[in-house]
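Hello again,

I reread your note about wanting to compare the complex against the isolated chains. To keep things tidy I'm splitting this into two emails, and this first one only covers the full assembly. Below are the input lines as submitted, including protein chains and any nucleic acid or small-molecule components. They are followed by the predicted structure of everything together. The single-chain runs will come separately.
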Amino acid sequence: MRRGLIAWSKAELPESIFAARLKRLRAAMEKEGLDALVAYTNNTRTAAVSWLTAFVPYWAEGLLVVPSSGDPLLTMAFSNRIVGWGKAVSCVARFQGTPRIGLATGKYLAELGAKRVGVVELEDLRNAVAADMIEAAPQAAFSDASPLFERVRIRPEPAEIALAAKAGSIAQHALAAMRGDEARIGEALETIEGTARLAGAEEVYLAAALDLARDQRFRRVDDGSAAPGKSFAVRATLAYKGSWVRMTRSVFHNGHAPLGERAAEIFAAATSGLPSTEGFARFRSWAIEGCRTAQPLDLLSSSALETQRPLAPDSLVTVQAVIDLDGHAVALAAPVLIGGAGLPSAALVPPVFARG
Amino acid sequence: MLAQDRRKRLTEAMAQSGIEALVVYGNAWQGDYLRYATDFSILEGHGIGLILPDGSVELFLDSATEAERAELETAGVTVRLAPEIARGVSGRLDRIANHRIAAAPLGFMPKFLADAARSYKLEDGTSLVDKFLMVKLPGELDVLRQAAKLADEGYKVFREAAVPGRAQFELIAEIEAFFRSRGCPDNFMIMGSGGQDVMAMAPPSERRIAKGDLVTTELTPAVQGYFAQICRTLVVGKATPVQQRAFAVYREAMEAGIAAVRPGATAAMVAKAENDVFRKYGLGEYATSKYTRVRGHGLGLFTDTKPHILEDVETVLEKNMVLVVHPNTYHPEVGYMVLGDSVIVTETGAEVLCGTPRELFEV
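Full-complex prediction:
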């Protein structure tokens, strides 16, 4: 729930971007005969609404209505005093504060006379909100619009790729700022956190594998005095203007520093083959996540899954991997743009490799 | 140990109520029910816990990253990765559809899970858990005392970092880095800076701190998932007599509110004690919902838990509840001003957890 800078950057995301996204969405809605589309947001499921409006809530929850024509309406469970802040950091025609977002949304749908309404992630929608909305819009038939929304938003424009690259760059810079020889892990995390937030990160989740030789899984650190092992890794999950990435830095001592560079080369070779995941077969573990609907980093494919979701060409993902090299485990993560139309896939920002 | 004590409390309450399975929901915004039952502080995606009468716990998560973390951070919990979580949990509940199943908070459950067409019926178990979220165990109080000390230390860092020319988000970078250095992985904070134009606090912006600004903040660091809060206001430079006079009203109101805290009193009585001070000085309008949200609230595994301190909330205070009493609101002469301390409801009154002086700081 930590919050950094939440602001709509008109330089990075001009109004024309949102106008173009709305146009694409409405064209898809028309094809499916939808009168309106509804998307939910809270401070953990931000992605659908932020993609359409730039808005990222720091608190509370909201619903966005995109009618087939007319004004989109974003309702947030904010008091009127906070609505002014919401308007200042969003690009949406109408912004309303209300304690009952489902009710207000349903009323707007009724006012619009919307009969066919698509809801992004309808099955996962908070049931009290859904019940309010459905009751207040008795004329409407609601259906799941997740596949439609995913098709519309999956191919990023240059602006979205640039944001992901910026998020990756902030994470890379912050991880690189850690010396790697800190006696206390708290000291290392302090450096990463401070560096990332000073660079404008909206959110930073840090996790560590304190002794890579023993366990390659990451956990939050609640004891700043804990000492890192001879090889350890820190993962930064970082948001910038609604764009989320993960990056990991492994640190080795005892003369094993070159391991990281070799691992980065292997990682690059495997990711260049995406959307095929064949290159990951030799890895100890891996996970590929990306934004498809409202969850910023949705699980798409992983060594922990029996059934993989297909990876789309020309889409943004974050890849995490643990690679075994010369009896050592190396953890890496980086944002990757999956190639298409003959272009190879490549990391937007190279993984931070080890320096002991 | 704390997790085991909480789980024991839950299963005893389930037995007393005849509940044969308890389903709890959590996300990074509202994660307290999930943390209470499963000991997992969720950051990404949805989390749903299933607690059975024998104390066994299954934790369903739709994020592989979170599932991996949960395996390390929880004990005695079976972690299940379920990318389609509502359907995954629903399939599990189908197997115990003939049991009495309660859900908390019921209103947060995914629509699919709560749908009437399912083979099972979810009863509302929110109040069963709410009582435990509000009235703390001794171990929980100890952790909250630690969190309040950390909040005090954090505010000291905040005071030193609030210098002219620095953007709000740059100031907050320093605070968050400090908390991280202390092994504190979570903090809720909002702030404001400026004068009469500032009507509320919000996340840090690019606005730069300037001489003469009132700088407000509430810091809410967590220790083992438990949040304690401090609210303070500072002036960049020398406080004016008007600012000092205004601040005196907030101090009197907060102290009146804390004096009203005792077992048997209601949340409404605490709010009234605070608001009466504003009314005494002709500022009653600024104690209304037009200018302020609440006059305090509960603290624990959520930063804004029940009870809300408002004049229409009749929740009776009990020993071992933890509250922040904060008459934060707009003042027409100086702008938004805040002051608040975390307290434990004791047998006879309140134990104040925050040690930072109740003054309008000048930096």
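For quick reference: The first strand of chain A starts at residue 36 and ends at 42.

B.
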